[in-house]
Design the sequence.
C-alpha cells in the first residue's frame, strides 16, 4: 500500500543574502527571504532510454524544484545518459544506474517509463521498499494502472498482478481530476490517443450532452511508436504515406470511454480509427458528435478553456506546429444544428506523456501545476 501523508523535505535557499543588521538589533528573516526558500524534490526515472524519458529529463532539468538523482536502464548501466540522449550532452552527463527498489524508494518522486504491463510488478516492489518513506509519489506513464481491473484484463489479455494498488491509483488528467491528483501517491498517466480525444470531448461530457456513438479519426506521429524500428512504424516506411491500424479495436478505446463516463457522458461508444502520419511529433484528432438536442456548445468549450491553463480554444483548426514541444491542447469546434465536430491537437510526447506527468507531479507536491511547463511551440 502507498500511504498518504505530508512530506518532510530538504529546503534550499535561492538567491537569498541576509541584510546587515544594525548595531544591537536582532536579525529576523523577512517575508521576502521566506518566499525565496524552496523545497527541492528528488526525482528518479525508471526506464530512461526512450523518448518519453528524454522529454522528462529535458523538462525536469529546467524545473526550479526538481533534482534528478537517478535514471535507470537495464541495457546501458554506467553509460552517460547523454550518450543515449545526445541532445543532453553537457546538460546531463550522469550515468544510467541499475534498478534498485530499496534505493529508489527513498526518493520523493519516481516516474516509470517502462514497457506496458511491466509497471505493476515494479510498483509493488517500490511499495514494499518504501517503509521509511511513506510519502513516495509514483507516476506510471505506462498502461498498467489506467483501467479498472476487468477492463484491463480484457484489453490486454493478462491478469493484473496488483489489484489492490489498482484501486488506489488516480487517473492523471488534471482537467478532469485535479482534486484527486493533489492527494494521490500513485498516478496513472493517460495514453496519448486517449488524452487527445478525451480533452476534445470532456466539455460535452461534463455538460451532460455527450452520449451514444462518437466517431473519432486520429493521426499520430512516428515518435509514438518508440525508439525501436518496427514494420509499419519505422519513420522511413511511413514518411510520405498514411496507414490506418487497430481500426475500431485500439486499446485506448476502453480508457476513453471510462474517462468520459466518469466526466458525465451517458453510455458513450467510441468508434476510433487511428492512423500513422508522416510526421514525428503530435496527435491530431477529429471527433464527430451528434447531440440528442441542439445546444450551443461554444460557450461550454470557452468556459472549459478558461478553467484550465493548458487548454486553448482556436477559432480555426489547430495546427500541430503550434503545440509541438508544449504541454498545450489546442481545440476548435464547429457546429451545425445537432452535429458537432471537435478538433483537438497535442504533442504526443509532452501533453500526451511527459509534460502531463510533470503537471500531475506539481499538483501531487502542492506546487503550481504550470511550474516548469512554460515552453512555447517549436514553430516552424
Sequence:
Amino acid at each position: 500500500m502507498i500511504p498518504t501523508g505530508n512530506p518532510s523535505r530538504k529546503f534550499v535557499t535561492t538567491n537569498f543574502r541576509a541584510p546587515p543588521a544594525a548595531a544591537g538589533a536582532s536579525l529576523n528573516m523577512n517575508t521576502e527571504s521566506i518566499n525565496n526558500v524552496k523545497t527541492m524534490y528528488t526525482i528518479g526515472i525508471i526506464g530512461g532510454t526512450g523518448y518519453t524519458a528524454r522529454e522528462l529529463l529535458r523538462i525536469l532539468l529546467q524545473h526550479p524544484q526538481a533534482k534528478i538523482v537517478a535514471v535507470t536502464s537495464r541495457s546501458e548501466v554506467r553509460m552517460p545518459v547523454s550518450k543515449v540522449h545526445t541532445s543532453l550532452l553537457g546538460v546531463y552527463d550522469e550515468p544510467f544506474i541499475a534498478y534498485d527498489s530499496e534505493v529508489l524508494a527513498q526518493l520523493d518522486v519516481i516516474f516509470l517509463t517502462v514497457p506496458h504491463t511491466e509497471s505493476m510488478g515494479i510498483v509493488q516492489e517500490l511499495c514494499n521498499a518504501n517503509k521509511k518513506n511513506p510519502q513516495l509519489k509514483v507516476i506510471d506513464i505506462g498502461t498498467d494502472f489506467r483501467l479498472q481491473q476487468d477492463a484491463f484484463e480484457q484489453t490486454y489479455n493478462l491478469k493484473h498482478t496488483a489489484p489492490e494498488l489498482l484501486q488506489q491509483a488516480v487517473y492523471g488528467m488534471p482537467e478532469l481530476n485535479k482534486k484527486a491528483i493533489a492527494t494521490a501517491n500513485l498516478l496513472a498517466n493517460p495514453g496519448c490517443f486517449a488524452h487527445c480525444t478525451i480533452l476534445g470531448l470532456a466539455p460535452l461530457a461534463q455538460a451532460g450532452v455527450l452520449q451514444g456513438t462518437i466517431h473519432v479519426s486520429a493521426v499520430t506521429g512516428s515518435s509514438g511508436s518508440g525508439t525501436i524500428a518496427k514494420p509499419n512504424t519505422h519513420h522511413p516506411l511511413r514518411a510520405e504515406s498514411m496507414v490506418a491500424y487497430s481500426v475500431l479495436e485500439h486499446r485506448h478505446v476502453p480508457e476513453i470511454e471510462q474517462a468520459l463516463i466518469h466526466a458525465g457522458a451517458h453510455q458513450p461508444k467510441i468508434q476510433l480509427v487511428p492512423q500513422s502520419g508522416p510526421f514525428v511529433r503530435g496527435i491530431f484528432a477529429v471527433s464527430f458528435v451528434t447531440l440528442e438536442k441542439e445546444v450551443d456548445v461554444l460557450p461550454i468549450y470557452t468556459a472549459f478553456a478558461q478553467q484550465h491553463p493548458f487548454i486553448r480554444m482556436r477559432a480555426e483548426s489547430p495546427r500541430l506546429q503550434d503545440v509541438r514541444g508544449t504541454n498545450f491542447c489546442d481545440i476548435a469546434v464547429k457546429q451545425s444544428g445537432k452535429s458537432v465536430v471537435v478538433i483537438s491537437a497535442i504533442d504526443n510526447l509532452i501533453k500526451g506523456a511527459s509534460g502531463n506527468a510533470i503537471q500531475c507531479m506539481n499538483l501531487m507536491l502542492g506546487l503550481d501545476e504550470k511550474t516548469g511547463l512554460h515552453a512555447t511551440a517549436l514553430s516552424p
Q: What stands out?
A: DSSP finds 13 helices and 15 strands in the chain. Confidence is low (pLDDT under 50) at residues 1-34.
